[in-house]
Amino acid sequence: MNSITKAFQNAKAQGNGALIGYIMAGDPNPEATPKIADALIKGGVDILELGLPFSDPIADGPTIQAASVRALAAGTTPMKVLEIAKEIKSKHEVPIVVMTYYNPVFRIGLDKFCGLAKDYMVDGFIVPDLPVEEAADYKKAAEAYGLDTIFLAAPSTSNERLKGIVECSSGFLYLVSRFGVTGTKSTVEDSTVQLIKRVQPFTAGKIPLAVGFGISKPEHVRRIIAAGADASIVGSAFINIIQKNIKTPSAMLKELQAIAQELKAATKTAK
Q1: What is the per-residue pLDDT across 237-271, written as a single tens digit (0 to 9) for each?
Q2: What is the CATH number of domain 3-265?
Q3: Which residue in 239, 247, 252, 249 sits closest to 24, CA to CA?
């Protein structure tokens, strides 16, 4: 059993939903990321997503775009992201998923990149700009190294295409809760609840369903899990804390751990 599957099973056994936390690797600098990961994991994050900074992040809103700019300015490279992943995994058993656009993977070489990811203890990938219809070579290479391939489904995804995405996904299905880019929102819309209820029958008994984009508060998490999702994905809320506290790292880490605890607690009350 791989570590992502185990993380979901452990959460379910405890009567919880899973909390997936996203941060940009190298933001505000590569040395800070393992400490930020420590704080989030202590707070209760079950799976950690590490963003690989990229110059044209088409799926990301202003918060994550700014984090990517800071990480690139601090000298964060794809290899540095893998080194950060290995450093985190040397201390924690929490699964690590790298979220990357396809260009850096293509430039390094698909087989080489997957092999390096395995060597550096990465558990899976999310590649938001790689459609499932064009992902056969990627999926083959990832499977050869035991890496999970996590694909995204959107509100506009048809039921027919959804079936294909579920079949090609492993680890979990990433359900985009709304149209647009990443970023915090004040509420979880009724349309998101209905979307979860539409998608959940396709994933039930096959793969965990994780919901992201716009989730930033405990009440969001509570509603997402209550609607039938297996996990909530939180990113921009964590990155906002990092940005706000760049000059006061101790305060940053304290606040990150505290909000992670609140968000994880919301998964417990939702089941």
Answers
A1: 999 999 999 999 999 999 999 999 999 999 984 44
A2: 3.20.20.70
A3: 239
From 27, 46, 56, 60, active-site residue: 60
Whether 219 is catalytic is: no
49 annotated active-site: yes
242: left (phi over 0), alpha (psi -120 to 50) or beta: alpha
* 21, 236 Cβ separation under 8 angstroms: no
Listed residue (53, 70, 45, 87) closest to 221, CA to CA: 45
Among 27, 46, 49, 255, the active-site one is 49
Domain boundaries defined on the chain: 3-265
Contact 95, 165 (CB under 8 A): no
**Residue 132 DSSP label:** G
User: What mean pLDDT, rounded, does the chain reach?
Assistant: 92
pTM: 0.93
